[in-house]
Amino acid sequence: MAQLILFNKPYGVLSQFTDRGTQTERPTLSAYIDVPNVYPAGRLDRDSEGLLLLTDDGKLQAEISNPKYKMAKTYLVQVEGDIVEDRLDQLRRGVKLKDGITRPADVQTISPPSLWPRNPPVRFRKTVADNWLQMTIREGKNRQVRRMTAAVGYPTLRLVRKAIGQWQLDDLASGEWRALTL
User: Which of 40, 84, 139, 182 holds its CA 20 to 30 A away from the CA of 92?
Assistant: First the structure.
């Protein structure tokens, strides 16, 4: 039976078990998960937080991470600036990036979610508004959500993945994981 691990990746942790090629060691998955023969199904940038799936099943790993399967990934996105519906409509239609036009995203404004504190905290500026979006994409370009929001004038301040397909972050605290048998 396949094993699937749901991990709430903290800010600053690499989505891999080793950190090769740098002189300064950065935190990796090995500091949190001591389960043999599981590998990340996709990636989550070092400066992003939230749900990361790991599995020992190669077919499942491909279904989760390969863009051809169009598995939905849902994010909570704190952005800088006042929300204008026309800009959200651009995200809903797809945004032109250097590597092509993105697929349309499902996006809406949300109230600030109840999340764990981030270390270091997100910078706060009295003169610049910030707002929260919930955004679902069905592809996986490098740093896609950050690049999409920036392309419409909303720099991302904090990015938390809350769901991948049917799997949800739910009540997992930052740095915690839960194993499922499929």
Answer: 40
19 catalytic residue (yes or no): no
The answer on pLDDT for 2 being more than 90 is: no
Question: DSSP states of 100-162 as a string?
Answer: EEPPP-EEEEEPPP--PPPSSPPP--TTS-EEEEEEEESS--TTHHHHHHHHTT--EEEEEEE
Identify the band that residue 19 occupies on the pLDDT scale cut at 50, 70 and 90: confident
Reduced to 3 states (helix: H, G, I; strand: E, B; else coil), residue 94 is: coil
List, in order of start, the domains of the chain with CATH numbers: 3-175 (3.30.70.1560)
Contact status, residue 169 vs residue 163, Cβ threshold 8 Å: yes
pLDDT digits (tens, 9 = 90+) for 132-179: 999 999 988 889 999 999 999 999 999 999 999 999 999 999 999 999
b/e for 160-176, b at 16 or more Cβ within 10 A? bbbbbeebebeebebee
